[in-house]
Amino acid sequence: MKNQSALFQLDSSVTYLNGAYMSPLLNSLAEIGERQVRAKLTPYKISGDDFFENVKAVKQEFSRLINSAEPDRIAIIPSVSYGLANVAKNIDVEGKEILVVAEQFPSNIYPWMELEKTQSAKILTVASPESLKNRGLIWNERVLEAINSNTGMVAISHTHWADGTLFNLKEIRKKTKEVGAMLIIDGTQSIGAYPFDVQEIEPDALICAGYKWLMGPYGIGVAYYGSAFDNGTPIEQNWINRKDSENFAGLVNYQEDYQPGAMRYSVGEQSNFILLPMMLEAIKQLNSWGVNNIQQYCKGITEKPLEILKEKGYWVEDIAFRGSHLFGIRKEGLDVEKIKEKLEKHHIFVSIRGSSIRVSPNVYNTEEDLMKLVNILN
Question: Measuring CA to CA, which residue among 177, 211, 186 is closest to residue 29?
């Protein structure tokens, strides 16, 4: 795969290594967004079919991205918190433990705090290792060891949002099945840049914001809900999620039944005529590139710079326990805030998360971009 910077409009004076914060918008998405905004100038051209066609297409494209054979298991959501709220409303963890990892993103914590109140569940946090030696390996071992007969749910990401630690979802899924626990995955920091196979992992739910590695606009996302949620109750009741909603003339024939699959969990006004076509184009582009190719491209541009940093005494997780699209850089005694100021002075954008310099390149970056970071850290 070759560099794709020509498809974006990043300022040439800027080195943007912060896709985990927010992806830049593809030029093609900006054009679609502008066109769709103007489309409402003539609302009489928006047909009844327009409420459903892009929804169906997004489900198909996202299913392809995660290797799901069931597009009807995909829901359109506005945020991760919305998608997880549907999980919280339909899960039974009465008196059980909800397993999470340390410093998990808050949207994947707050819903479970509510379950502590309503279902007497208990959040059990698996601490990260204090030592950097074999950190990813030990953290994964701790997660697996913590799963037992009292575990009701494991709520985890594929890659940790703060430092990119990769969790072995295949082994975690195997262990949760053994004890009858559910597996809920926040895929926001991995889906679209790191390979994921829903048929291999078999999560009970996979929730993704759209504005990071899916390269979509802010305010829209996608979610996969497994069979455990087939007969659940959504957090909101809207007309389009009900049976026969395609028949506008018959909408007053109120229906008890929902549309098939996970459509019941989609947000009201899911047909969003601006954001949805943009999201569709973004996922189409990802499928065209291929997620494996994206990950290999990131690996290719980061290998040499990271080796140089290691030689200079910096620590980066072993490749077996991180992705190449998102990783943390650490060094004992490093003043990360001072480093951040220095980087910003040179228009190099990364994120500081705790003691980690979080670096997150993508297909618009080059090895030279990473070398600019290396030169500053030297």
Answer: 211
Q: Are residues 142 and 153 in the same domain?
A: yes
pLDDT band for position 335 (cuts 50, 70, 90):
confident
Nearest to 86 by CA among 268, 264, 260, 265: 265
Convert the pLDDT of each residue in 9-18 to its tens digit: 999 999 999 9
The HSE-up count of residue 225 (CA atoms within 13 Å, CB side) is 28
Nearest to 150 by CA among 228, 95, 204, 187: 95
- Domain end marker among 289, 316, 346: 289
Structural domains in the chain (count): 2
pLDDT tens-digit map of 44-62: 999 999 999 999 999 999 9
> Do 140 and 156 form a contact (C-beta atoms < 8 A)?
no
Q: Which domain holds residue 306?
A: 5-17+291-377
Please check whether residue 27 lies inside any domain of the structure: no
pTM here is 0.96
> What CA–CA distance (Å, rounded) separates 104 from 303?
27
**Whole-Å CA distances, 254 to 47, 81, 246, 260:** 22, 29, 13, 16
